[in-house]
Each structure stands twice: as C-alpha cells, then as structure tokens.
Fold each of these.
Amino acid sequence: MKKELKDIFSEDLFEGDMRFLEPMRKHTSLKIGGPADVLAMPQNLLSLINMCGVLQRNRIPLFPLGGGTNILVRDGGIEGAAISLKSFRRIEILNRDSQYVYLHVEAGTLLQRLVNYAKENGYGGIEGLAGIPGTTGGAICGNAGAFGCEMKDVLVSVEMLDSEGKIKRFNAEEMTFGYRSSGILPDQFILNTDIKLRIHEREEVSAKVENFLNIKRQKQPVWEPSAGCVFKNPSGVSAGKLIDEAGCKGMRIGDMEVSAIHANFFINKGEARASDFITLMNEVIHKVQQRFGVILEPEIKIVGREIVN
Ligand SMILES: Cc1cc2nc3c(=O)[nH]c(=O)nc-3n(C[C@H](O)[C@H](O)[C@H](O)COP(=O)(O)OP(=O)(O)OC[C@H]3O[C@@H](n4cnc5c(N)ncnc54)[C@H](O)[C@@H]3O)c2cc1C
C-alpha cells in the first residue's frame, strides 16, 4: 500500500512538501500519533485539487489537517493522506467603512496571527479567541470559542472544496454551526473565509486580548502538551468542574495525566500513547457518570486507525 502511494503521487502534478510514513506526533499539540501514510502540504490550490483528484480516483481517504491542536491521532496513524493547508496563509482587507472592516483570511492562517493582526489594527470581535492555538480553518471546523465569543460570530462566508474537487462559497447562514461544531463533512476542505470585524480604538481591543490571555494562562496549563478541553461542557455545567469533583485530577495512565490545574485538560507527561489517552478518557467518563449520572462527550476529534501488528 505504501509503495503504491509513492508511485501514485510521483506521477502527478504536485507542488509542495510530501512526506511518506510521517509520524503524526510531530504535527499534534499532544505529541501523540502514529504515521500518516502520506502527509502532504500543497503549495497552491491547483496542487490541492490535483491531489484530491488522485485520491478520489484511487479511493484513498483524506484527512484535512490544521494545527493538530484539537485531535488525538490513534497509534496506528492515518490511513491515506493527511493534507495540511499551512501554505495558505494570506490575510487581506476586502473592504472597510466607518464601522466595519471585511477581511479575507486563508484557512492555514494561524488563528493567533489573525487575533494579533486584529489587535494591532483595532479590529474588534475576536478578542475572546486570544490564545486558542491552531489554524483559522480548524477554528471554523470546530467553531472554536471562549469567553462568550465563537468563530461563527464574525463569519460572513466560507469557501470550501469537496472531495470531488468542486469549490463552493457558503454564506455563514447556510452553515449549521453549533457548540464546537460546524456541520462540515470530514473530507471537505475549508479554503478561506471572509470575516467582518468592528473598528474600535486599538487600545480597547488590545486590553481585551491581554486580559483574556492572562485569564487563560492562569486557568489552563497552556505550556504543556495537550489538545485543549477533552470533553464538551454538558448543558449549564463545566466538564472540568465535574471531572474535578469526581476526584479525577492527577489520575494517570502511562504518561497521560489529568491536569491538576484544569481537569478537562489531559497532559502528555512524556511518551504517552493514544491508547493511554483513550483509557484515561474512558475512566474519567465512567467516574463522572457514577458520581453525577452525566455522560461526558468528547470535544477533541479522535482520528486514525488502531495499531496494526
Ligand atoms: C492549550 C490549548 C488551549 C485551547 N483552548 C481552546 C479554547 O479556548 N476554545 C476552543 O474552542 N478550543 C481550544 N483549543 C482546541 C483547539 O486549539 C481548537 O479547537 C482549534 O480551533 C483547532 O484548530 P486546528 O487548526 O489545530 O485543527 P486540527 O486540530 O488540526 O483539526 C481539528 C478538526 O478540524 C478539521 N480541519 C482543520 N483544518 C481544516 C480545513 N482547512 N478544512 C476542513 N477541516 C479542517 C480537522 O480535519 C479536524 O477534524 C485549545 C487547544 C489547546 C492545545
């Protein structure tokens, strides 16, 4: 299978970086994950479309990879192609009036680059996204948010590429955003987005961003390898509080540990495997269910195959 993949791709028009059997632990904030059969980083849209065509014709699955900050890749790695849009990172002003500025942002743009750009220019609306790692595409896919602010709040439209190579632009109202969800299919690529931000005083935006960053640094172990919140908050209650009160803080399987600082963060203390993470998740789910009768649902996306011997 792996040799075949090399042959398939070498024949096609592709500009960019392509790595075979690339360990996904190098591309995830958890530092966990077996090898992707191929990890491709197309340099332009044509290469991405060509690649999707090759994959489609050969019935090879694909996985859109952002910053890898909200995924757990299983120890068997990713079957087929993980495709990163990290070369798609343009931010452009489309239009501006006395109240609003409209920006065109490519999906591989780091969300914190966008937040900083907005902060430096006094554009308000995404201050609450300060400190959320990953890409703009990943933030749209998971409708990332914090402090009462969600990615969907500023979206005007999103351009997507489907697995058949068709490109279509959707207005935000046509999409089905929910709490940490967007309804985007697993094999659809977000290519770019147009967003609308409000023009404010630069100091005002900057103060809000700094305030949110400080709160995040105090309450979350942002300096340790994690994938952010493991579980969604059940309606009206914080998952972290339930996990803490069920006595799970500090629980450990292998090198995977429930953070003592924020119980909804699991930390890789060294050489943890995806199987350790999943065992720890299941134990936490069980304990919370026993104590409160609530079944926690994962916020992170678990992808890839079980280990193959
Ligand atoms: C320390 C820390 C703090 C965090 N704090 C928060 C927080 O406050 N709020 C919050 O919501 N999240 C938080 N997160 C989680 C994570 O950073 C966000 O969910 C982020 O938006 C994920 O983006 P990503 O680019 O890393 O996506 P990835 O993890 O790479 O992918 C996540 C999903 O998006 C899909 N995807 C990525 N890019 C594209 C694309 N271009 N087209 C189609 N699909 C795509 C992937 O296929 C996958 O299904 C935190 C994580 C960490 C490590």
Note: Residues 29, 63-71, 85, 107, 132-135, 137-139, 141-142, 144-146, 184, 188-190, 220, 222, 226-228, 301 surround flavin-adenine dinucleotide (CB under 6 Å).
Amino acid sequence: MNAETFNGLMKQVPRLTLRQRELLRKRLDALDGQQKALAVIESPSSDQPRSCPHCQSSAIDRHGQVSGLQRYRCQMCHRTFNALTGTALARLRKKDKWIGFSAALVASQPLRPAAAALQVHRNTTLRWRHRFLGSLKADRPATLQGITEADETYFLESRKGSRKLERPARRRGGKAGKPGLSCEQVCVLVARDRTGQTLDWVTGRGQMTKAELASALQPVLAKDVLLVSDGNPTYRGFAQDAHLAHEAVNLSAGVRVNGAVHVQNVNAYHGRLKQWLHRFHGVATGYLDNYLGWFRALDNQHAASGEAVLAMALGKFPHLTVT
Ligand SMILES: [Zn+2]
C-alpha cells in the first residue's frame, strides 16, 4: 500500500463506530498472530538445512505459496511440502491463533479460559494442547552428569476423559479408595543433576521396580555419575547392577543432608510439579507424560515465550543437549 492510500485510510479511522473499531482490532490482531506464527514456522532449524521430508533429498525447488507458507517441490520424489509437513502441527487450522495458544501454555492456562480468550471451541484447545505437548516433551537432556539425585513420587490414577470407567468417577482428583501405595497410584520418577538438567518418567502403576528404574536411568546416566537417592533399596540394587557410584540419605533416621549427599533438589522439583498440577484438578494418567514435559519446559525456562513454545511444538529445540 502506498503512503497516500494509507493516509487516506488513517483519516477514516476516527469515523469508525465502536463496533467497527472492535472488528478492525480483531482483524489486525489476527494478521499479527498469523505473521508471528509464520515467522516461527518458516525459520529454519539451526542444525539442519531444509530437505524433503518424504525422501530427505536436499534437491528442492520453491513451488509457490499456500496459505502464507512457502511450498517446495522435491526434484527426486517430485512431492510437495512446506515447513509444517511432517511436524506435529501439520494440517492444524487457525495458524493466526497458534502464538496466542502457545502463550496460554506459557501461562499454564486451563482450557476453558484459553479457549474463551482465543475465541475457539474448547475441543480445539484440547486437541492443540495434546499436539503441542506431544512435541514439546521431546525436549529432554540426553544425559545427566555429576551428582544426580533421583526419587519417585506418586499420583492418583485418573481415567479423566476416558469413556470406559471401571469404577465410579471421582470428583476433581479425589482420594484413593485404598490406604497406602496401591495400584491406584501411578509412579513418576524424577532425576535431576546439580546443573539443573532434569528428566522424568512415568514408570507405571504401584511401587517402582528395579527393572523400571534401570530402563529409565541406565541410558541417560553418565558412567562417572554419583547417583543419590533415599534409602529405598531399589536404587542400591540398580546402582550395583549398573556399576554406578551411589549414596543414599537415611531419611528414616532423620538424616536429610550429608554434605553434598541429599535429594533436596529433586524433592523441591516434586513439590513444584505437584503444586503446578493442582490447577488441572486431576490429570488423565494417559496424558501424564505430556504434563510432565510441559512443566519441565516451564521449570527450565525453555518455554519462556509463545514463540519459543511454538518452535518447540514444531520440533525445533535450540536447547537440546549435545553430548
Ligand atoms: Zn523427496
């Protein structure tokens, strides 16, 4: 638009009715949202040049634009694609609201207010949440180093949202029917090293077994790690099997800290996680790992802005630890 046309347009602005101003504001917001989202979508991953998602060939040509996105055509397999092809967000609609939705994730906003603010249906925000988080949770450090604290915590099993309830629904989280640790409890293992790198796993129902502990920790612990746990003998057994240095704090004897040997960091993490999860009034067990990933990205501040969250939802992880 040239300056003259623009100035003409600006002169009309004071004559707009309140309703028209509101419509104009919405239109500008949508354009703004669309442009911000497209900028994140089109920004190349720093580590890999653009290539064909179908055959990985890098011999590609520009091939027009579709809904604001550059389309490419592969010289080898002749198929077309854009920057969203093969990502978790491929074929989702309303790109102009993706940054706003990502910002709602940064704000830990529940679905209903997020849907209201974005003026989309609640089912849309539900679908988006799981698509975004399914991708976000892949932002995990490859290894934990040095002194690494590990401890498990338990969540009440929840079939929230499930169509097949095997027992009467509990209201809002509720209490377990059986006292103590039972199969109604889902175990989450958290390991955190002293640089703050954190990993978590949903190990399964009931008490964590040594096999579950090993399959989680073995692949990610550096060889020279010092594993620190509470007195639960599962950790000692695993460390012996894996030939890892291990220290336990004897919490039952009232010993919480023995020099550098303590599990205060991982326990504080559990506390923050549980407090944060409280707002969702019970999380479906099947989606618990999505929520763990969401909280991890907030706690380590990788999910610092709508743009950062959208980039991660697209599988662009600037923070991935390379070892
Ligand atoms: Zn190809």
Note: The pocket of zinc ion is lined by residues 52, 54-55, 57, 74, 76-77, 79 (CB under 6 Å).
Amino acid sequence: MNVCVVGLGKLGAPLAAVLAAKGHEVIGIDVDAAAVAAITHGRAPVAEPGLPEMLQRARPRLTATTDWNRALAAADASFVIVPTPSEEGGGFSNRLLLDAVGHIGAALRGAGRYHVVNITSTVMPGSCDGPVRAALEAASGRKVGEGLGLCYNPEFIALGSVIRDMLRPDMILLGECDARAGDVIEAVYRTVTENAPPVQRMNLVNAETAKIALNAFVTMKISFANVIAEISEALPGGDADAVLTALGKDSRIGPKYLKGALGYGGPCFPRDNAAIASLTRRLGTQPDLALATDTVNRRQAGRLAVRVARHLPPGGAVAILGLAYKPHTPVVEESQGLMLAADLAARGVAVTAYDPLALANARAVLGKSVRYAAGLEEAVADAAVIVIATPDPAFRGLPALLERRGGHPIVFDCWRLLTGLPVPARIIGLGQGMPAAIEEALSPCGPAI
Ligand SMILES: NC(=O)c1ccc[n+]([C@@H]2O[C@H](COP(=O)([O-])OP(=O)(O)OC[C@H]3O[C@@H](n4cnc5c(N)ncnc54)[C@H](O)[C@@H]3O)[C@@H](O)[C@H]2O)c1
C-alpha cells in the first residue's frame, strides 16, 4: 500500500520505518526540515532503540518531503501523528492536527482515488467526528464516507520500546467512520504486526475515549500500588511487594504496573489522566477518580525526598540514578527522578545526577542546581545516599562499583533492582515497613528536614 506518515517525531518516525520495512511504500512529511532530511538520508530523527536498524531495512521504500502535494500524490492512507499539546484544564489542543488535516484535505481536493485519513495523535473524545471531519471536508471539498475515509487509531507504545510495541501490540484500537475505512487500516496492521493482535473496531468517539481511558486506568493502578506502599511503610513488618504480588496473581487484577515504587511520568500517562478529568468537567460528570490518582502520584517524589534527607549525614551528598521518566529514553517530561533531584536541591542537599541517555535534557531543566556525572562510577563516588529512580538494568552494575569504592552508603532501591545481589550497602526498598523508632535510630540526623 502507499502510505503517507504525517509528523516524523518520536512516534511518527518509528511508524514510518516499520511500515516501510514491512513492505509498504512510505512517504513521510513534517514541517521540520531537519526531520525530513534525516529520514531522507536514512538517519533517525529521534533517539529510539532499534530505529536506526529499522530505517536501514526501510530505506528502499521510505522517503520524506515537506511538500504536501508530493506526499499525498499516490497515498492510499495517511497516518497523522502530530503533537496535540495539553491545554490549561487538561484537554488537548487540536491546532496542529487541524493544520495538518487541512493540508491533507487540500492535497486530496479533486483526487478521484479512495483515501483514508487515519488520526494517530491523542485527541479529546468528539474531535474526529467534529472539528477534524469538518476541517477535512472543508479543505478537500469531499464528504467523509464518499470516497474519503476517516479513522482514529492511537498507538499504545512506550518510549524506549516503540518498535517492539508496534510489532507486537496487545491490541489494535480502531475507530472508523465506516467499515470500508476500517478495513483499509486493519489490512495495514495485518501486514505489520507479528503477533496477530485482536483488532477492536468501533465508532470514532468510543476509540477516542478508549485511548485515554486505558492510560487513566493504568495510572490509577500505579497510584493504587503506591498507596499500598505508603500503608506498608507505616506497618511494622509491612511489605508492599508481598501484598501486591499476591494481588497480581488474581486474574481480575494482573501483575503489570502493580509495584509500590516511584510514580508515573512521561508524555502520556499524566496528561491522559488529566484529560479524563477535563472530559468529566466538560460533560458534567465527576473528575474525582482521576484527581485522586493524580494527587497520589504528585506526592511520591516529595515523600521520597523526605526519607532520603532523613538518612543523610550532615553535609552528605546524594546520587540520583535515573533522570528520564523511564529507562532507554532521553525524555524527562514529568520524570520522578528529576522531581526528586529538584526537591532535594531545593532543601540545600548536594545532589549528583546521572542517566545514561537523559543528561542533556535533565540539565536543561535542573540547570546548575545539581552536579552531573558522566558515568555511574563518578555519580556514586562520594554519595552517602544513592537513589535508583528508574529500573534501568545498567544500574545493576552498582554493587561492583561500591565494592571498589568502599564505605557503606544507603541505597534507596525504588524498583528492587538489586534484589538477590550481594550489595555492600544498606538497601532500603520502597514499601517496606520499619517501626518509626528503628528508622529514627538508623537515621543519622533525626527527624525529617
Ligand atoms: N511519544 C509518545 O510516547 C506517545 C505515545 C502515544 C501517543 N502519542 C501521541 O502522538 C502524537 C505525537 O507525539 P510524538 O511524541 O510523536 O510528538 P513529537 O513532538 O515527537 O513529533 C511530532 C512531529 O510532528 C511534526 N509536526 C508538528 N506540526 C506539524 C504539522 N502541522 N504538519 C506536519 N508535521 C507537524 C513535528 O515537527 C514533529 O516532528 C501526540 O498526540 C501524542 O500525544 C505519543
């Protein structure tokens, strides 16, 4: 099939590469000439594991342009993946999306061929059948359903594993204006996916709701696990891992995202949860569940900062390992490690921060408030307390470094990454209960600052 991918960013570039590697003729378009040049020359415009290799496989069938007429000239379908930034109040702006759809419509004006516009950007429910359809029909002079299809088809990917998630998704969510349009997009996925995922087809508004509802459910689960961690920490002998592992065995619940650890972050979870709250306000229903999820999430970094400060000897330094919102990505949006670093620095604590991929982005946010280490060894060299803020497998090298370094630091192992390893340090896992008197006695500087 001839496919146009509109927006060659963190999601669009991998999608264009995957579609072409799987045999489709793909042309990408972006308003950013640098992204277009990168794709044209087979280079990755964004950092994503596996993308450079996928671009090499895609090369004979993948090109890019900034010319809308050229991009749409032969396309049977366009996948639109431009930003839909959050607005005050939690909804998403369709401004860039409507701009792109307007260009697509104008390029399709007068074309006799059937074409499906497939919106992949995250949108508020009601967008596709409302302003998006209106913009497309106005610009193209054609009617959706009459030689022109419109679908809503978000990707459920996580940065750092975008390619794998595209090839092996749990399901394909597909909102369609009619069956003909849905058939075209389903046919594309049948050629791309490697695990024959179920395709959930429905109308446009239900798919839009399902996308943000799914992420809001996962965030609720994460905050629930963190509430259990808070309870367990206050119970002598409490252990959130024991409690949550048992819960995860129940088939109604399942084990994923059920760990008392730091909160969620990144470009999707926080804003999709806020979008549910915004939607309820618009509809006159209640936002309380989404707000509670957010409230629990927002206190996690601060809660940990208090505990870290409490275990710090006077003048002692803290090392924070993990500044991206998750491993294998440079993205620091709503990152818990970053929030922890900022909180501790604001308390006057000397912080050294390290991340394998996100140092430059972290520096842009934290500035000179913390020190940055170029490697793990340098990060922990003089730290009295070490916090493992993301479950990056690279941090499993910590015990060997501490062996060489000597001393006996405290390690907050937020993700229990070091479980089972001999570590020359005192390990504190989150969600582990300790009577207050013992924690106080262990603390070199008494009550929390
Ligand atoms: N990144 C994620 O983890 C993720 C996951 C699920 C959904 N999404 C959604 O996908 C959408 C895109 O996200 P992203 O992370 O890929 O964004 P991004 O900022 O990384 O990339 C977007 C690209 O679109 C281009 N662009 C902007 N306006 C344009 C226009 N009018 N016409 C053509 N190109 C234009 C930009 O130059 C950029 O290259 C958003 O709605 C986001 O919510 C993202």
Note: Residues 416 and 429 are 6 Å apart (CA to CA).
